[in-house]
Design a protein that fits this description.
about 220 residues; about 80% helix; globular
């Protein structure tokens, strides 16, 4: 399997994304309501760097687009939690420098042309469209979360976030199957289970709050 180093980068990225979901899941199960640990956003930033790199190496526009759009939102949530200034200098430098470094590399040293992302011989037009739509739906969850968090001035994961996560995950899982991408298939199968569980926890916690108000 000659592409194993590329898949290794993708699986490492998804391992970090899975770790963020597991940390969030465990904390939520413990408190019986949806919680958002600081680790969720730190792992998101690091995993995003790796997954963007994986998308570039796979010549997959859908993956690159998704990570490009939400990178800043991860960073903003750390700010909203008052955690950015507490991070060590190495973490800050990596997070800030990466977008500029990868852009410079693609512009001046990369061999991949934009046309390659849309004309790859092994990807049909409808499949590219499915990947982009799936990624846009999946990515929109963080824009919704960002809006909600800015409104409340605290980082949180509302119901809409989990609903968009599940819809986008189903689309990307389907895309991954047709794309023969084990990274996407594994990630969105596992992620879908956690999204459903968090929706259940959030619904129950809202129901309990409503009952307390009525008393």
């Amino acid at each position: 399997m000659e592409n194993w180093p590329i898949f290794a980068i993708g699986f490492l990225a998804q391992l970090l994304f899975s770790a963020r979901l597991i940390s969030q899941w465990f904390l939520s199960e413990k408190s019986k309501k949806v919680e958002t640990p600081v680790l969720f956003w730190k792992l998101s930033l690091l995993a995003s760097i790796l997954l963007f790199t994986y998308g570039y190496l796979r010549e997959d526009f859908a993956i690159m687009l998704g990570q490009f759009l939400i990178y800043g939102i991860y960073w903003r949530n750390l700010h909203l939690m008052g955690e950015w200034h507490k991070r060590n200098i190495l973490f800050k430098v990596l997070v800030i420098i990466f977008p500029f470094a990868i852009t410079a590399y693609i512009l001046f040293f990369g061999s991949l042309e934009w046309s390659d992302l849309f004309t790859a011989e092994n990807i049909s037009g409808w499949l590219i469209a499915l990947g982009i739509v799936g990624q846009m739906v999946y990515t929109s969850r963080f824009f919704y979360q960002w809006y909600h968090s800015e409104k409340e001035q605290k980082s949180s994961l509302p119901m809409g976030f989990w609903e968009l996560s599940l819809m986008g995950s189903i689309l990307l899982f389907t895309y991954g199957i047709f794309r023969d991408d084990p990274v996407l298939v594994a990630a969105h199968f596992f992620g879908g289970i956690i999204y459903i569980r968090d929706m259940y926890l959030l619904k129950n916690s809202d129901k309990q709050v409503g009952e307390k108000i009525r008393r």
